[in-house]
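A reminder before we start the practical. When you read a complex entry, don't treat the lines as separate problems. The point of joint prediction is that each chain is placed relative to the others, so the output describes one connected object in space. Small molecules and nucleic acid strands, if listed, are placed in the same frame. In the example below there are two entries. Take a minute to note the order of the lines before looking further.
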Amino acid sequence: MPIWIGEQEIEDLAVGAALLGTGGGGDPYLGKLMVQKCIRKNGQIQLLDPTEVPDDQIVIPTAMMGAPTIMVEKIPNGDEALKSLRLLEEKFGRTAFATMPIECGGLNSTIPFVVASEAGIPIVDADGMGRAFPELQMETFNIYGVQGTPMGLFNERGDYCLLDTLDNAMLEHISRGIAVRMGGVAHIAEYVMTGAEVKRTAIPNTISLCMKLGKAIRVANERKNNPIEAIQQVTRESIYGEAMVLFKGKVIDVERRSTDGFVRGKAVVEGFDEFNGEKLHVDFQNENLMAKIGDELVAMVPDLITFLDVETGVPVTTEGLKYGFRVICLGIPTPDIMRSPAALNVWGPRYFGYDYDYEPVENIHKRRVRIG
Amino acid sequence: MPIWIGEQEIEDLAVGAALLGTGGGGDPYLGKLMVQKCIRKNGQIQLLDPTEVPDDQIVIPTAMMGAPTIMVEKIPNGDEALKSLRLLEEKFGRTAFATMPIECGGLNSTIPFVVASEAGIPIVDADGMGRAFPELQMETFNIYGVQGTPMGLFNERGDYCLLDTLDNAMLEHISRGIAVRMGGVAHIAEYVMTGAEVKRTAIPNTISLCMKLGKAIRVANERKNNPIEAIQQVTRESIYGEAMVLFKGKVIDVERRSTDGFVRGKAVVEGFDEFNGEKLHVDFQNENLMAKIGDELVAMVPDLITFLDVETGVPVTTEGLKYGFRVICLGIPTPDIMRSPAALNVWGPRYFGYDYDYEPVENIHKRRVRIG
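Here is the predicted structure of the whole assembly.
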């Protein structure tokens, strides 16, 4: 049974997606406004469970790529990602049955809703990362054998590119260069796949999980309950593990530079409450990659590391993080499909240049709590 | 009347094109071997005067782009530029009547012959630069109003891109980024135009001029005549002005770096004979841009500045220039179509960051000779 998505659901989605976005995936406020405008114009949008997509129909995922710091300065017209989808429809000579996000994130969970609304097609309740990642080969679609190209890229001017590469690492490499030259951001359609491939490779029901998370935070705030406990309850009942508080404190330093089509940097947080006297260091490349308290690793990719406002539980994105913010740092264990050896090879700590193997956040946490 | 081009003509073409290439346009030896292999396989290649192209037929120019220093290390398979042409044929739903070079240069004058031979189509005796220039908006096709995109780019692996931009400056900007990410070199097809547009915008008969120049140098060497005088005679009878000797000396320094998809740098030559005690400085960005003797400018873009071996008159490309080479530096006045205000706006000294207006090489030369 399809679900119809209205303005309130999008409000919740944007917040929940920013949480799973682990700092990346773009500004949720901007994405929310774009979809709500579409809903007012075109009506509610149909959300399909992956099992409802016929095996032989094609699904074309849509997204933005580039540095989120630039995304907030270059507001989309709203039709760029749809143009990229149309480019691929033309290339294949087939019509998309539905679109789908490639990742969870403030903008990249909402852009496909804009496309679905304008094209009059449903959106599939799934994605290819189960969080946000900085690079385009970091999608379960790639890991489980879907060809990423042909890929369509449009910028806000209307310049476009149809890209075809022999492998998905080259897809990322060339398309990143194009996004940089297009002005730092490109609106894309890629990993065209059949309904059967969606069922086999996508991480299911992440859109509805984002909406549940956003709703839990909203309702907790309305009722003056603890939003962290609300998040923990939703994650406990999902294919993710239960969210855990890694740190609480005040942001005392953020280093951020937009280079090579990414925003890279690190944040330092000075602890308070039970973390008094300690310091948290978080590295990011669009998304938060690694968290250390003092010299001790407490979480690493692909597990989720997310900053929330300490009062409201509302997630803070990489480009929004500022000196003086009082934050909670959450760790959320990723689903098993994201922890296979094939998956860790593409998005584990070693890929990002760290000299250690992946250790699940919940194992580290248990050890620390026991010692503490 | 079409002319049929065989192995000897290609031998001459490669040398003459390297001369008009002013240091750029790639290695003539490599280009020559590629075409001669094609001629042995497919027979002679038809060279058409621009006036012989029907007004409503389409011509698709083909070339390589990137740093010539990389081109000599990544030898093409030979079918890359043809694939880019086929991509544009498919896009337009039309067959190319002919191909054409975009510039004169060792490789870029010969690549379209490979395409013509493999596709079984003629090549038009014209080009879009009348020399070599480093950037793709620096074509008479752009200056006189032809849309450069859609553009096809292939690399030697088979990765490809179909690029469409709103203007030809963006064409250069994005395609340069793609060429860099494709490995430093891309094989391209662009500025698709009608026969009528070829006649209106191309610089006519530059291929046959290259062949005449190459032949003149070869025959002068065979007969132990002065090759410089032979070059002067051919240029005197062309739409270019007569070549003049700007300097003679020994290369004492070459600074060269491959950055942003170009090779940039400068060469210093210590004079001998009548230039004893003087030093020549030449700047290049793929092509030689500016020549100074001491503090005095002696030639600048778009006039041609070319190094020749002092004994044989054979041109030396930017990537071949080495310490100890004994060279003559020639200046050749460009045709009027390349000196219009619109043209100088695109490829005059100010575009390349120099803080002075263009002055024709022959005027500077007359003044220097008079004072000297």
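Discuss with your neighbour: Residues 289 and 301 of chain A are 5 Å apart (CA to CA). What might explain this?
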